[in-house]
Amino acid sequence: MANITRAPSEFENVQDELRRTNEELVEAREFLENVLESSTQYSIIAKDLEGRIMAWNKGAARIYGYDASEVIGQSSDMLHVAEELMEMPMLASVLEAGLAAFDLSCDGIGDLS
Fold it and tell me: How far, CA to CA in Å, does 5 sit from each of 2, 9, 56?
């Protein structure tokens, strides 16, 4: 009897690619979580374009006095003084436009440490 092999179907190829991509995403997420958790001397805060806090590390908790459970999902406005809040719409429009070269550290804006 002849040994018949078949080529993987397009569906199987897509499944394999999705599995590899998922594994890479899991590894990347674990790496970023390790960076967040191991950085205790500096605050690392991630927020979305609407200004909601999405990530908060132990350094941020130490510096600001809030536990992650208190701030995740909340507006980051609570971390800024009035002068900085007036700049936020401009900063958001720059980020949305994809101007990565904009220096967020000018005049202390964006410096949360």
Answer: 9, 12, 52
Residues 6+ apart with CB under 8 A from 103: none
What is the pairing mode between strands 53-56 and 45-47? antiparallel
Number of C-beta neighbours around residue 56 at 10 A: 23
Domains of the chain as residue ranges with CATH:
20-78 (3.30.450.20)
Q: Which two tokens stand for residue 38?
A: 């191991």
Averaged pLDDT in 10-residue chunks for the chain of 113 residues: 68 92 94 87 88 92 94 91 76 66 47 40
